[in-house]
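Hi there. Long-time user, first ticket. I'm pasting a complex I've been working with (about 636 residues overall). I'd like to know whether the download I got is complete or cut off, because the file seemed smaller than I expected. Thanks.
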Amino acid sequence: MYLCYDLGGTNIKAGLIDKSGHIHNKKNIPTQVEGNLEGVLQQFKDIADRMLEENSISKEHILGAGLGVPGFVDMEKGVVTTAVNLGWHDVPITKRLAEYLPYPAFVINDANAAALGEMWKGAGQNYRDLMCITLGTGIGGGVIINGTVHNGTNGYAGEVGHIRVKDHGRRCNCGKTGCLETEASASALAFYGEKAVRDGVATMLADKMKDAGTITSKDVVEAAAFGDAAAQEIVNQAAYYLGFALANMYMVIAPGRIVIGGGLAAAGDILFKPVIKWFNEFSLTEIKGEEIIYPAQLGNDAGMIGLARLVDLNLKTL
Amino acid sequence: MYLCYDLGGTNIKAGLIDKSGHIHNKKNIPTQVEGNLEGVLQQFKDIADRMLEENSISKEHILGAGLGVPGFVDMEKGVVTTAVNLGWHDVPITKRLAEYLPYPAFVINDANAAALGEMWKGAGQNYRDLMCITLGTGIGGGVIINGTVHNGTNGYAGEVGHIRVKDHGRRCNCGKTGCLETEASASALAFYGEKAVRDGVATMLADKMKDAGTITSKDVVEAAAFGDAAAQEIVNQAAYYLGFALANMYMVIAPGRIVIGGGLAAAGDILFKPVIKWFNEFSLTEIKGEEIIYPAQLGNDAGMIGLARLVDLNLKTL
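Hi, the file is complete. Here it is re-exported in full:
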């Protein structure tokens, strides 16, 4: 059995997962950001104690721990180079974790963990080359080449949220403008939804805004599905930039599949159909997006399942 | 000793190369396109006979043959799937070559051969992840991940000439519009040079056009180096689109180096400086183009040297 922690800026998803990828128990608790590193490490230990107790599992049955982090990771050294949302810089996380938990531990970028999960048990099964894109508050990505996570220099591989897609675009958190993340993430849809209302565009989102004081990407997707023209335009714009970015990524590594997950992927056809249409528009004629682009299958569990896979692969090669 | 053939639509570059990458003899002869496949195979045999005779080398000293082809290649099967310039489709080239030459033969896309060459003996030494871009009549690319050529689905990986960089761009040979190839290849520079003259722009290229009836990319680069504003604008536009495409490619695989070769790379700083400037403009702040983007070092020999490496690696694993 493996202990897996998918660490986010908001929540820690934790799971007890066996070698075959089956999840025996999972927890979702708010990340204790204030306490910083020590606080999070203590949370890891507390969750482990609780899960072992609740499942009557003894420590000897835990063979290793996997940790997914939203940031740049040096997997070999077990160091988190930078995790902006956590405020971590050059944290020797596997070494530190060893002070709290007596298991061999392995760390990986969270998007890469999700990619490993989808390759093992999800939409990427039977493919050796895979690209996974996560459409959430930001846009992350994981690249698997020949069955192995490809990190690239300083872990930059797959950081597709910062692919430039638009001239004179909005300012991104990264400091640049026109990044994919500012045009096609869940936050981007929410932003453009609110903007439409503020600009006085005729849209049912105006009522949402009046009721809730804010608009979410889910509101925009639902309005688009309902036939709201302004919302459809926002979704189509996001799909345009996604199709553009995915087509260009494809020409670099031509993976067997591009798997799209994250909260926004729940939109389904209303997002995937135009993404595939634009992907085809921007790709060589022979390349068919409908054979390449698929929604992720594992939802929020992809990361944890990928972490179990990571631990499993690493223990085998130790 | 290995027999290496870098086959182009215009010329066959052939070489006798030893295991350490040293070229003992090379030939450059026009490709006999009319005779199609049989004609080319006969040329391969004739060149081999001549080179062996001129160097007093007996057949027993040739351990294998490597073949670089401008098109899509299934390396494992030894099949050229499509080579537009040669008019080849699904040609089982290594099997056919065996009827003419009694050596184990291996085939690879020409841009991938050049990438292998630059990794072995050129600008990519000591790097395991490498991207090589060739700026010629078209724009090709080779991707090496973890020391191995990465072909991707149907050999599409690295086909970066068809990355979309411009809305409402010119029609490309591939049928799409706004491809990198139509904006930043040697032909693109020549096209925009002639266009400037036709449009009556004040430029020293007008005299070139009057004298030669045509303008080459070399003319444009030379005029730019001389200070001609119109030519500088053309080079800068090409550099802009290259910088854009390279920055976006980098976020996919983050290779240790991006090596740029091909005829246009001979332009040197006048091209590389703005390419790096635009690359940095479009990349995360921490990513420095001047540490990543380098001119190829092996010139026209890159392909042949890479082919020797290919044969060497393949014979070792046979």
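A couple of notes from our side: Chain A has ten helices and 13 strands. Chain A touches chain B at residues 129, 131, 143, 145-146, 148, 150-160, 162-164, 174-176, 244-245, 247-256, 282-287, 292 (CB under 8 Å).
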